[in-house]
Amino acid sequence: MRIVLRVNGEEHEADCWEGESLLFALREKLGFPGSKNACEQGECGSCSVLLDGTLVCACLVLAAQADGHDVTTVEGFARGGELHPVQQAFVDAGAVQCGFCTPGLVVAAADLLQRSTSPSDDEIREALSGNLCRCTGYAKIFDAVRLAGGRA
Amino acid sequence: MEILTPRTLDEALRIKSERPGAWPIQGGTDVMVALNFDRNRPEAMLNLNEVAALRGWSRDNGALRLGSGLTYAEIEHGELRDVLPALAEASRTVGSPQIRNRGTIGGNLGTSSPAGDALPPLLVEDAEVECASVRGTRRLPLGEFVTGVKRNALEPDELITAVWLTPSEAPQTFMKVGPRNAMVIAVVSLAVSAGEELRASFGSASPRPVLVTAPREEADAFPARVAAAAAPIDDVRGSEAYRRHALRVLTHRALERVLA
């Protein structure tokens, strides 16, 4: 089936198998490999994207459900070669180890900071609870979120 | 596989009657796991995301109608938090923010898992499940809707359209045991309210939702009664004995909260 959706503000079309996820369509059909594929069951958060502005796991959205909708992936964050403030904070705080979880965490952290620029540690913990970093680099990730919030 | 995306409830019900084998998908947090791992490949998917009538909630005299497409995030953050506090607490323990943004109360009912976090707080509030088809609409008490482990009384041509309840406004709470504070399938869960009588229901400790009641004067014996009403199993998440013990302890703590 053919779906038409907006990804990072631009209209795209893709031919999809009916049972495939939005994540598969983004990575394999539309050329947006930034969202990572790991657990495929909503446990790890590495495929986090915004669907109509709402934070979701792209692996748990049927590609067909995104037909006619608006998706923001991590590729949509940097503007004109300039990193998004959350991305810059991850770099400055050294919040990236292997980097696999980073795209999902950047999207989830930006979603949090757009609601509150000075979240408490508990709020950060709650907001990022669906994003796993198996390098366990959480302390620096917290630093990055606080840094990005402080600069906003 | 075929994708069927109705725009109205009437259209959705017509499709479900013509294609009873089509799987309804709303938030997808259960259904997509089955598809991603190729555990099931239904002939068709009935995508309910575009049916506005299933979204949100409304008041009808003193009763509340929660649309089956109401998400955990909407319950957790909105006005319902004050009206249905135990359901809001339960919603807050579901998965992660990403899951709560998509997962719905109708999906929790449709899956009918003994671990469904919304089920105990809804049963304590005497919720009814609205099932609709082209033949008409009926309401089933939640305790009758769920007929077994991942089984329910929904007919092949029906869709879950809403949950009805009249908020008791009784002090109430929800508790859940698991290895961490997020992304946890309940080892056991518990909802307790203390209105005119004590009421409790638990998750992951019986094949179907069970309601346990007692007069308020019998609060001291209530934890043991709740534990005795459970029929837990040994599995990877916990033992039968642990679950029964945890239910006794949780009920004791819950009563301290709701009777305070």
What does this structure look like?
The complex is a heterodimer of chains A (152) and B (260). With 152 residues, chain A is of the alpha+beta class. Chain A has 2 domains: 74 residues, Ubiquitin-like (UB roll); 67 residues, DNA polymerase, domain 1 (Orthogonal Bundle), CATH 1.10.150. In chain A, 34% of the residues lie in helices and 15% in strands. Chain A is built from 5 helices and 5 strands, in the order ββαβββαααα. A 5-stranded mixed β-sheet of chain A has the order 2-1-5-3-4, sandwiched between helices. In chain A, helix 2 packs across helix 5 and helix 3 packs across helix 5. Chain A is globular and about 45 Å long. Chain B is an alpha+beta fold and 260 residues long. Chain B has a domain of 87 residues: CO dehydrogenase flavoprotein, C-terminal domain (Enolase-like, domain 1), CATH 3.30.390. In chain B, strands 4-5-10-6-7 form a 5-stranded antiparallel β-sheet. A 4-stranded antiparallel β-sheet of chain B has the order 11-12-13-14. In chain B, strands 1-3-2 form a 3-stranded parallel β-sheet, with helices on one face. The N and C termini of chain B lie far apart (55 Å). The model of chain B has no long low-confidence stretch (mean pLDDT 97). The interface between A and B is medium-sized, with 29 and 27 residues.
